[in-house]
Amino acid sequence: MTKSRPKNASERTARVAEILRRLDSMYPDVTCALTHGNPWALLVATILFAQCTDKRVNAVTPDLFAKYPTLSDFAAVRPEVLAKDIRSTGFFNNKAKSIVGAAKKIIAEFGGKVPKTIEELLTVPGAARKTANVVLGTAYGIASGVVVDTHVSRISRRLDLTKQSDPVKIERDLVKIIPKEKWILFSHQIIHHGRALCVARSPRCVDCQLETICYAKDKTYWSSPQK
Ligand code: SF4
Questions:
Q1: Of 69, 75, 97, 134, which is least packed with CB atoms within 10 Å of its CB?
Q2: Is the pTM of this model over 0.90?
């Protein structure tokens, strides 16, 4: 049966803890869907992932890293040449410029290592906040924030964890209520949930373990009448 909405701060805190507990039960071992062998490979894959699918990116990166095995190889290639290699991921001219620019910057200013702080990473071409959080969280295990992509935006609103639509504001709300040690896993779990059940149109609420504590207006199933 769907529970009534929390009425005060302690009930809200308890509800968030319950959401996290149920996410752990639904998605205990999830991680990033982008195949990568090191932080640089993940940064490249994350740049390629914009407006693309993980399947497509994972299909492109093995040949890409076979052709350009080192950071220096990426720094040396002309963007218009690299663009042909990543054409199938879409927006290839901008992505190629970002990747070549990122390789040059990391060699020139960070000793050839992808930096480990969000402040430094945000200065690297192609690494906006979402990308930086993915790389720091997944490649280094550093909880710099919560990754806010389209799934996290949609589901955080459905679960009443934020009322915002701007990703920076959503992240600000989430880091206030999600314990820091859960930031990395929470992002992965919600992204998986957004693909598996809580899809944009017609979420599969009848199969969702969060249903009894979810009040989303576009739920497709209510285990008791809406209050
Ligand atoms: S109950 Fe439905 S809307 Fe709520 S989190 Fe689950 S799938 Fe999403």
A1: 69
A2: yes
Q: Which of 197, 212, 213, 222 has most ligand 1 atoms within 8 Å of its beta carbon, as the pocket-test mutant?
A: 197
The predicted structure's pLDDT at residue 184? 97
150-198: pLDDT as tens digits: 999 999 999 999 999 999 999 999 999 999 999 999 999 999 999 999 9
Q: Residue 224: pLDDT above 80? A: no
pLDDT tens-place string over residues 44-77: 999 999 999 999 999 999 999 999 999 999 999 9
- DSSP letters, the chain, are -PPPPP-SHHHHHHHHHHHHHHHHHH-TT---SS--SSHHHHHHHHHHHTTS-HHHHHHHHHHHHHHS-SHHHHHHS-HHHHHHHTGGGSSHHHHHHHHHHHHHHHHHHSTTS--SSHHHHTTSTT--HHHHHHIIIIIH----S----HHHHHHHHHTTS----SHHHHHHHHHHHS-GGGHHHHHHHHHHHHHHTS-SSS--GGG-TTGGG---TT-S--SS---
Distance 198 CA to ligand 1 centre (A): 5
